[in-house]
Amino acid sequence: MKFFSDIRLLLLGVWLGAAVFFIGVAQTAFSVLPQRDLAGAVVNRSLTILNFAGIAIAVILIITSLLSASKVNQLWLWVERFLLLIVAAACAVGQFAIGLWMASIRMQIGKPIDELAADDPMRIQFDTLHSYSEWVLVIGMVAALLAFFIISNRKFRPLKDVGADVYDFKKEFKV
Q1: Those residues with Cβ within 8 angstroms of residue 26's Cβ, 6 or more apart along the chain or in another chain
Q2: Hey, is 159 helix, strand or coil?
Q3: What is the pTM of this model?
């Protein structure tokens, strides 16, 4: 079961690493690309991939948490599932609510957002949604990090036929 737990931990770590990397990609895209619309397109596409991966990984981890449910502390298992549900919900809200709403605003404007005045209602609404998007991603990342620590510190109950000294290698290699 430890190997299975390590695979689950790896999946969560990959998504968490991708989310941290995404922050760097977003900042780099806006500082390097000549047009902010191009940078926005790169960031939007990368965030879409990150959100769909987050939803998929969270669902896989919730389902696979059912396989080893009898061998671990039930309280921490339910906390882990709740945190993974938060990850999936954050990615879904970011993609299907906030992301679609921001795309709708971009289509209504019909020109680059930077060409709008700072006090334009559409610009203010877009900026507000952008900050919501950032907060939703941060919430998902914090939930993933907490779930990562819970999974990594999991203690499995020993099997009945295996002794408590299963890692005592002195008995294994008598000299």
Answers
A1: 43, 46, 47
A2: coil
A3: 0.83
Predicted confidence pLDDT, tens digits, the chain (175 residues): 678 888 999 999 999 999 999 999 999 999 999 888 899 999 999 999 999 999 999 999 999 998 877 778 889 999 999 999 999 999 999 999 999 999 999 899 888 888 888 899 999 999 999 999 999 999 999 999 999 999 998 876 555 544 556 566 665 555 5
Buried b / exposed e along 152-172 (16+ C-beta atoms within 10 A): eebeeeeeeeeeeeeeeeeee
Q: By the 8 A CB rule, do 13 and 148 touch? A: yes
Burial class (CB in 10 A: 0-12, 13-18, 19+), 20: exposed
Backbone angles phi, psi at 41, to 5 degrees: -65, -40
